[in-house]
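ugh finaly. both done.
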Amino acid sequence: MEQNNSKKNSDLLTGLLNMAEAMLVSGSEITRVEDTIARMGLACGAEHMNVFVITSCIIVTMGMPDGEELTQTRRVMTSGGTDFIKIERFNELSRRCCADPIAPETLEEEVRAIETSRPSPWTSYLGSVLAAGGFTMFFGGTLWDGGMAALFALAICWFQERLLPISMNQMSFNLLCSVIVGVATSLCAGLLPILHLDKILIGCIMLLIPGIALTNAVRNVLVGNTISGLMRLVEALLWAAALALGFMAAMFFTGGAYAMAGDASLSAAAQLFTAGVGAMGFSLMFNVRRNLLPLAVLGGVLDWGVYMIAASFFGETVFLSSVAAAAFATVYSEAMARVKKAPSTVFYIPALVPLIPGGSLFYTMSCAVGGQWDGVGSFGSSTLYCALGIAVGMSLILSVDFTLRKLLQMKTSQGERHRNSHYGS
């Protein structure tokens, strides 16, 4: 009997570890994975759960009421990108399991079914076209620039589909892809003077830049997940460095004569519209559920509106404007998550996308190629201040939310103790 219980507990722990790995690979945050697995383990009969997750490793210890303790470790080697529908389905599975615990074999089947589901490839291609084209115009490009960026977005999406699985890692893929796209766009801009190379490349960079990974890394450090945050931060910086090196090499070999050609500015209405197009593109790329798509896009539009309003008060202070916009995005995403019973990630990533400093990163690279070191310092610091401002704005709201929840739990607990003592007397 004890042997059967031990085998059942071991199978349960394996199922929980499989789910944790699948969630991590699908783009779930570290804290979400840890909290979900701990809750499910307790709901399935564990007396205590110790869950430790970083980007490349998962360790779970499960203590049972009979005194048995089981520990399993999992090395996570791959990343499947971000898939919001999978994250939602895992979230729904965890809620269902906590309400009515399911057998280990059933858990394994459901996790495998979610893990093996694949979105339509056309959704990814359409999202890439909208994201690259929209953000090319968002940063001041013309319709011609947006159309050319959309064409190269199809190529990037094809590269991600065919080359990324056989690349050594994301860094080597970013280097190869940025060189190919950078050379091709530079040649096109040389042949067609109507095009602005800087705006087209910025739109393409937005598809490859690890802006979300960089922001989440800083956020993890600020909220206490230091190891995970530092690992993701180093990883994101290496990805960005490979991307920068590739585009710098492309501009160097082709002369980079058109790198700073475009300098158009958009009206506030045009900025809001193109921000919405870009947010829709990333929402499709990340596989947002259709009935949530309007709210995800609305978040991007409203967030950029908040950034513009903040910029009118703070002037050139990118950090404070980013803090204000990121704080709004976090409040918006948390509110929508409660209303729609969906993970907040589904809303805050599309909302934050217009804040990603793709433009300043490109101009940092362009200045480096031209030896303009003052420009490197100016644009580089703007990029870092923007990323830090996003992380700080998110962390402030999450810290306040965490404190309020703790106070509410303490108040509820005190009220229950008071009622129990009253009834006992």
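ok and the 2nd:
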Amino acid sequence: MKFNTKTIHKGQKPEKLYGSVSLPIYQTSTFKQNEIGEYTYDYSRAGNPTRTNLEENICSLENGQDAISFSSGLSAISSVVQLFSTGDHMIFTDNVYGGTFRLLNTIITKYQIEQSWVDTSNVNNIVSAIKDNTKLIFIESPTNPMMTLSDIRSICDIAHDKGILVAVDNTFMSPYFQRPIELGADFVIHSTTKYINGHSDVIGGVVIAKTKEYGEKLHYIQMSVGAVPGPFDCWLTQRSIKTLHLRMPRHNENGMKVAKFLQKSDKIKKIYYPGLPSHPQHELAKKQQLDPNGEPGFGAMISIDLETLDRAAMFCKNLKIFTLAESLGGVESLICHPAKMTHASLGAEKRKKLGISDGLLRLSVGVEDAEDLIDALDVALSSI
């Protein structure tokens, strides 16, 4: 079964009782047991049919062996880290989503799990950071918001040669444009809030495991910790996945058109978009970010540096259609100021090191008419 068909049919067989094509929402906390200890589901924290359907569907899209859904992308990341123990060492991409850094640097660090933050776009940095107790390499590619790529296949080869596991945050690409398990990763993580749901109305996360063994361990953590999505959120996400293969090409098309327009402006200090030949890892993007037909895809996340906070603020004030808001990946276009919003928790010194200036803006290009988006950007640029 090919990708486009999977989005609609995997985990979505008409239900048995009445033959409903749109599966019911099992909005229940508990389930009747036939006899003591005889049941299919017992309690919705441990399992729910609506959640099972969602997990089966997403698992098939990433070509994994199991999928474990969570109440947010951060709870998904936290659960992967909980597979390991005090004294273990982990290597992380230094430019990750601000919430990921906050989780690891202020919460997980209390449990004495060693952390090395490196630029994983250079595999030599990873090799240099590996220790005898290194258990996990966690990469985000492309990174948020600097759009830096890591060579997933090369990193997996290095890691597996030393018995180290690899997790990839694939939120920016979605399984439509990048499938890390095919490149060797052991875990794929998504904030399903973003492109997988794509309608800015659900918070959620998922981990896809390459093996059943780790899938079972993560299901145990999911049940024990209890950071599970509600049935209605699962149903909404599953409903949205059915159009993932229609939305992503449009996002990609619009993203490319907007990026090409923006690169012509002399008011932008720098533009970050892997689809442009000027991006230092454009060739890597063409190699590892592929749609189900094997064609390169670059997504719809673009960052631009307008040099100063005042210029960025003026640009946002005069920008129509794009909404100034956190998050990304919805059908509507959004704009974000990372230094004050998504990456405020990093602190000024770390932001400066990563290149996240006060003039940096991150665009999530939606599926509106590209000409309207470009016209709106043109007006905003003319104001600074």
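summary for the 2nd one i guess: The chain has a mean pLDDT of 97.
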